[in-house]
Amino acid sequence: MNSVSNISIDNTTKKRPKVNRSHLVISNKIIAFNEIFALKKPKQSAREIASFLEIPNSTMRSWREGRLAIDSDVEEAFFMTPIGEACLQRITVAAMMSNKCGPSGILGMQNFLYNSGLDKYVASSEGALQNFWNRCQAYILKFGAYEESLSTRGMTERTITLGLDEMFRAQLPCLVAIEAVSRYIFLEKFTDDRTAKTWKSELDKRLQGTNFKIGTVVSDLCGALTSFTKSIGAIHSPDLFHGCYEISKATSASLSSQERAAEKKLNKAEEKFKKKSEKLRMSTKMEIQQQKEEIDVLRKRCEDLRIDYKKRKDRREKSREANKKIGAIYHPIDIESGLLQPPETVEARFKQQLDVIEENAKEAKLSESSFNRIEKAKRAFSLMAIYLSNFFTVFYAFINDMNLDPQQTIFFNEVIFPLCYFQIIWKRFSKQDKVKYATLLQMLQTKLQEAPWLESLKTMWMLNGKELAERFQRSSSFLEGRNGGLSLLHHRFHRLSERDLKVLGIIQNFHVRHSDGTTAAERLFKTKHGDLFKSLVENVRIPGRPKRQHHDIKTRQLGREKQRAA
What we know:
With 566 residues, the protein is of the alpha/beta class. The chain has helices spanning 23-38, 46-52, 57-70, 74-79, 82-100, 105-116, 126-152, 196-207, 223-231, 240-278, 285-329, 343-363, 368-401, 406-425, 431-450, 455-471, 477-493, 498-510, 520-525, 532-539, 550-565, and strands spanning 158-169, 172-179, 185-190, 212-219, 235-238.
């Protein structure tokens, strides 16, 4: 009887190391197999041929089945041949090199064509590629205008939420307007100024001919944007980040500086106390008594400094914690209980945390500018409470239009809407928060499943709940992300003309896809549109083959003569 080892790893079955073969090797093995098999020698089976080629029979069978499945596709059939595999290898490496290490623009395209070997078939001069990109831009602009007009044709008037912000480059503002729910870019344009009049003029031009009406504006507390929002009769939603940022700027650096200063004094006093205690001089009784008194004074000073340090540390931590709590408060539901929270409750909770911050600032005797920032933040949070009040007005009007009975209304308020809102904000939670609120989310999902109504009704209510939840916008982070992307593109291309910005916006709207596979245009218009890239491939002519130049022919002839001489 075989003995079993006491070491557990000795009793396990060792896995075979995975063999990774290149595309070219696979293609050559399949061709070799087919050629040997075509000889029709009866003594050699498929297993024996695979063994001779040092490939497991099951692996060879799966390769050949895959090859037979794609023989109808000309492109795939080509890339399964050795020549196609070598071509694919070179193009892929060239693309990776150009994207990761190469320059951008026309020069980057030239490098890619050269590295991939395609410059033999596609003209790669600066003029040819520039003309090609101009054709691409013209078609993209035409595509965007056509698809947008087609999607808005016959559409009833819709109220949208726009996020507005500016991005500055070369001392000129670039006005950016993005629809908050779908992330559809309506406006990206450099202008001479950023006044309310300019904003209104540019957005009126952009929305002319569409059936969109601006209902809510998400932005910072910029005077021009606030004035513009009032002029069009829209609701203003102040950005949560800027309110919290003002508090952070007012308190964080000052309180941290005071804490570090107190810590430095405490460390110095403790070090002095330690040296004095360890080195008592042997002298008269009077001198010994004097030394003990000095040590007692130092001990008392250390205790006082320790208390002072703790107070300053507590002030900083309490202010920081209060600022974090403000962010957790600003929701239409209480994320701890999942219940709707009225604007009055939110305002009272805001005031409670702001009072803590202001009290700590007074105790720390911060500068006048710090208190001015706190006052500015208080005005922002007051406006947030007003926006929440306006949101609930829309919320209850929306529910009335759904014609629900009293029991269904309670179910929608306590289960449907909180669940939809949680699902939207879930991806923004940290890992700790996801663990913290997982029980509440599971409870809401269970209540939805166990509800006595038809599944079709529940599905319709969930769609309505999602629409309502998406209307509440508390942040303009999507604008900041786009501004960062524009800034990088500006550095990359040195300048962005109005035409370039329009093209980049259309690509973002009609080509870039979200994780769910939809584009911004599909999310906004609720309809499918044409494939921008496929349409470009089918309709835009690429540069022709480069012409043979005199010096190219002479170079080849000299090369052949050298080969013959050698």
